Amino acid sequence: MVHADRKPVLLLVDDQPAIHRLLAVKLRNEELEFLTAFTGEEALELAKEQQPSLILLDLTMPGMSGFEVLKALKENTDTMEIPVIIVSGSTDSRHKVRAFELGAMDYVCKPFDVPELRARIQSAIKLHRLMKMLEQRAQIDGLTGLWNRAYFDKRLEIELNSRRRTNRPLALVICDLDHFKLLNDNYGHPAGDTVLQGFASLLNHELRSSDVACRYGGEEFALILPETTPDEAIRACDRIRLAIDAKSWKNYEGLSATASFGLAHSDDLPVETAEEWIEAADSALYEAKRGGRNQVHAYGHGLAAGGALEIDEPPTEQAA
Amino acid sequence: MSNDPIYSAFAEDEEMAELVEMFVEEMPDRISSLQDAWESSARNDLQNIAHQLKGSSAGYGFAAVGRSAADLEDALKDMERELASVKAEFDALLNLCSRVSA
Ligand SMILES: [Mg+2]
At A85, which helix (H) or strand (E)? Predict the structure, then answer.
């Protein structure tokens, strides 16, 4: 789910406690939260874990130098997007050039002028926020407000990578609105859009904030459910299934919508690639469609929940 | 060289008072590291301490200390110069540091 803005976090990296104390007082009226590091090593760890909005980085420090820290920050995909302002006693233009070449956003000389530093901090944070917003917009589906396919592909890779390291349980669900083409034909496309949006808001309502709901394309949705047992995943799908089935659509009398769900769970899936995961969830979805729609199928287990009475589909036909 | 105390330009600034006091309290430590570095001819250490004082002193309202520290740092960066030849810059900084008061 898309997160709201939190108070920007500033990571201050300097070997001198006197600088930390001074900035803590001089910046205390800014809308900022502070993290402090006295060594480069500490800074890298904090940056990775806490994802600050901005880093103020000293150059001359015992141990890792500011340049080494900057290089490491920019080489790590977890921290490369975090803007860095170098705050250094060096006025040497070669140092400034090197800092910008390594990816610093700005360079401020010590002793710093406090109002100027404040302004540069605010400007860096504003720019970072705009960049984040644009990046996020490019990953959001315009109609439903859910994550889009591009984000799903990226996120699934991330979750599979983290699963390789931690072996934590993971569930992938692909679900599809039943007879969506028929619904569009009978009620018009605005009705179809309303159902897509209504389904999206049900997903947001029924899923946890750690779950990832995406519009996979057309009337198809993909849900990534980290740290979820097979039972929990089935129950979540069935809650959504019942909710969409029970939902009434004002302005569209007689309209009802149902959805089918295909679930792949790490317990049943000794495979590693995203393609194989998607294939498994897709084949379970296919079974749910073939079994009569409005039901949940789990890969390797068959029918898991639901199961309508209707048997309206010859099994040879392409289910949709 | 004078021995008159030097007060922070922010002495009247309420939010700074406690900070300045701490900065002044730490001065004897900085002075002894400066002296240690000088006596053991530890040029790098000397340059680092000067660099730190340059960066922090003005922020605490001791701009003169900062400028003097910058002079010493610059002198030490000039590798043409023997350590003995920066004695004047070193003494000037030590003098200012010892006069810093809250
Ligand atoms: Mg430093």
Answer: strand A84-88
